[in-house]
Amino acid sequence: MNRIFGSSASKKPKPSLQDAIASTDARTASIEVKIRKLDGELARYKEQMSKLRNGPGKEAIQTRALRTLKQKRMYESQIAQLTQQSFNMESAALATENLRNTMATVDAMTQANKEIRKQYGKIDIDKIESIHYDMEDLLEQANEIQESLGRSYAVPDEIDEADLEAELDALQFEEEEEGTSYLADLNKVPDFVDEPPVELSETPAQHEAIKTTG
C-alpha cells in the first residue's frame, strides 16, 4: 500500500516563508517580462496607426492595441498584488526573526537567573557577617599587642612641657659656665711662676723684650 499511495514520511515539507517570498518574486519577474513584451507591441501599433488614415485598417490596429493595453493593465495589477504579498511576507519574516531573537534572549536571561540563584544559594550571609566580626576582633587584638610591645619603661606616661623647657635652659646655662671656666683656666698662671701673667694678646717676642727691660 505504501508503494502505491506513498507513506506520510515521504511527503514533502511545507514551503517556508522564505520559499514563498522567493516564489512570489519569481512570478513578479516573469510578469514584468511579459509587460515589456506588450510595451514593444504597443509601440509598434502606435507607429503603424500614425502612418495610416482613418479607415477599417487603422481601426483594426486600434482594436489590437486596445486588447494589448488591456492585457498590460491586467499584468500590472497582478504585479501590484504580488509586490504587496511579498512585502507582507517579508514583514512577517522580519517579525518572526525578531521574535526568535527575543525568545533566545529571554531563554538566555532565564538560564542566567537560574545560575545566579544557584550560586547565591551557596552563600551564607550570616557566615559572612561572622567573618567580619571575627576580623574586627583580631585587628583589635593585634593593635593591643602592638601597643603593649611598644610600651616604654623609662619615660613616664605624661611629661610636663614646662619641665622639659626648664631642663633645657639649665643645660644651656651649664654649657655657658663650662666655657667661661675653661677660658679662665687658660689665663691662670701656675703657682710656681713668679712672673705676672702674660696677656694673650702679646707675642713671645714681646714677652722676652719686657723681661729684658725689667
Automatic annotation (TrEMBL):
Pfam families: Snf7. Residues 28-55 form a coiled coil. The keyword Coiled coil applies. Residues 1-10 have a biased composition (Polar residues). It comes from the Eukaryota. Residues 1-23, 193-214 are annotated as: Disordered. GO terms for biological process: late endosome to vacuole transport via multivesicular body sorting pathway; vesicle budding from membrane. The keyword Zinc does not apply. InterPro entries: Snf7_fam. Keywords: Coiled coil. One of its GO terms (cellular component) is multivesicular body. Belongs to the SNF7 family. This is Vacuolar protein sorting-associated protein 60. It comes from Pleurotus ostreatus (Oyster mushroom).
